[in-house]
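In the current project phase, we have settled on a layout for protein records. One protein thus recorded is set out beneath this paragraph:
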Amino acid sequence: MKYRSRTDIFASILQSANNPKGVGITTIMYKSFLSHYQLKKYLSIMLENDLIKLEEEEHLYKITEKGLRFLQLFSNINELIDTTKEYNL
């Protein structure tokens, strides 16, 4: 697997949590290809910045409106920058 930036990992976590019912930490961990330790660090940052929320009683993570906006902007940026092309810089 290639190196992923923090932004790529945030997007991966948000895509994993993009379910109206919410998802558990194990589901996010496997879909995002992160260890439990790594995921806990990223989730902490994302919870602080209101990109994702935790439903305490159900122990499920859900994406917020801000998180959905992040995913949309991330997708738009990736469309603008086609990383499949080779550039001679």
Summary: The mean pLDDT is 91.
